[in-house]
From TrEMBL:
Binding site for anthranilate 1: 79, 110
Quaternary structure and partners: Homodimer.
Binding site for 5-phospho-alpha-D-ribose 1-diphosphate: 79, 82-83, 87, 89-92, 107-115, 119
Protein residues bound to Mg(2+) 2: 224-225
Residue ranges of every copy of the Glycosyl transferase family domain listed in the record: 73-322
GO molecular function: anthranilate phosphoribosyltransferase activity
Family classification: Belongs to the anthranilate phosphoribosyltransferase family.
Cofactor descriptive note: Binds 2 magnesium ions per monomer.
The keyword Iron is annotated on this UniProt entry: no
Residue numbers binding anthranilate 2: 165
Cofactor: Mg(2+)
Domain Glycosyl transferase family 3 N-terminal positions: 13-64
Protein name as annotated: Anthranilate phosphoribosyltransferase
Length: 333
């Protein structure tokens, strides 16, 4: 316990990758008591986590997760959460649309933490059996091109940490790790980050973790997705190029909408809205999904630009392919 305590007490300055790896190994092994873990996490948050610390923590999660085999070209679309927007489930809808466009999607997600309905809550309200969806994830990816990887089922090492995080009652490094620890080991990702100043840091961590291609995005309104209201900052890395860009709905040929137009509710409300979207309903939700799906299709190497990606996404909604995929997925579980 003494060695572990010393490692965790030295977090007032950024830790090296190796030191952070040892600290998180101690945390996950149960060699550190709850109060020490809480102090360690809060100290890191107060000074902002470094790329090495984020990468080391994500790798520690990867080393302990229950993995899922996936096609080499599978992608994930996932945000860090915590943006407080209480919007409809954008990334969940994007996952379905992108999979209907022919890109395998291993969607990592969980129940709501700070919103009213997380990906798991809304998919469950739509009729997806979460236990069977995780148990049959590999077959689902292989057979219909989409799977939901329920975080609670694939990251048992996080179980003992959950009460500590609840007691802290604020954001910690663990809020950044979900998108970086996909159980399918995807190497192409669209990742939403609520804090725009964290984009370069998370991008550096993802590079260290071996990403093949990724786009990290943050809406102007501190959204962990591309904003349909104003604009967004996007950081590309890997096979789709590198560097920053400014993304607005206009690039995809889409109008702007106020955030109130995509305000969500409880799981039943969000599930009904997603159904309406896949049935062809026009409006802000559709346009937000088209914009973010365009980003995902760029990451997958399937779209030449934002307008092309949005057009592909619109096509699979309008011809019923996305709706049919959801129905097949529910029936599969």
């Amino acid at each position: 316990m003494a060695v572990a305590s010393r490692r965790l007490s030295d977090a007032t300055a950024p830790l090296s990758y190796d030191a952070a790896s040892e600290a998180f190994a101690d945390i996950f092994s149960g060699r550190v008591d709850a109060d020490e873990i809480a102090r360690f996490l809060v100290t890191m948050t107060d000074r902002d986590e470094s790329a090495d610390e984020i990468a080391a923590a994500a790798q520690a999660m990867r080393d302990r997760m229950i993995p899922v085999a996936a096609p080499a070209n599978a992608i994930d679309v996932c945000g860090t959460g915590g943006d407080g927007s209480h919007s409809l489930n954008i990334s969940t809808a994007v996952a379905i649309v992108v999979a209907a466009a022919g890109v395998p999607v291993a969607k990592h997600g969980n129940r709501a933490a700070s919103s009213k309905a997380g990906a798991a809550d809304t998919l469950e309200a739509l009729g997806l059996d979460l236990d069977r969806a995780s148990a049959r994830a590999e077959a689902s990816l292989d057979g219909i091109g989409i799977a939901f990887l329920f975080a609670q089922k694939h990251h048992p090492a996080l179980g003992p940490i959950a009460p500590i995080r609840r007691a802290i009652g604020r954001r910690t490094i663990f809020n950044l790790l979900g998108p970086l620890a996909n159980p399918a080991g995807v190497r192409r990702q669209l990742i939403g980050v609520a804090r725009v100043d964290y984009l370069p840091t998370v991008a550096a961590a993802l590079t260290r973790l071996g990403a093949e291609a990724a786009m990290l995005v943050s809406g102007d309104e501190s959204l962990d997705e591309l904003s349909i209201a104003g604009g967004s900052r996007a950081v590309r890395l890997g096979a789709i190029g590198s560097g920053d860009e400014r993304v607005t709905p206009d690039l995809a040929g889409l109008p702007h909408h106020g955030l109130d137009a995509i305000r969500g509710g409880d799981p039943a409300f969000n599930a009904a809205a997603l159904r309406e979207l896949l049935n062809g309903a026009a409006g802000a939700y559709r346009d937000a999904v088209l914009l973010n799906a365009a980003g995902a299709l760029i990451v997958a190497g399937r779209a030449a630009d934002w307008r092309d990606g949005a057009a592909q996404a619109a096509a699979v909604i309008d011809d019923g392919a996305a709706r049919d995929l959801l129905d097949r997925w529910i029936a599969f579980t």
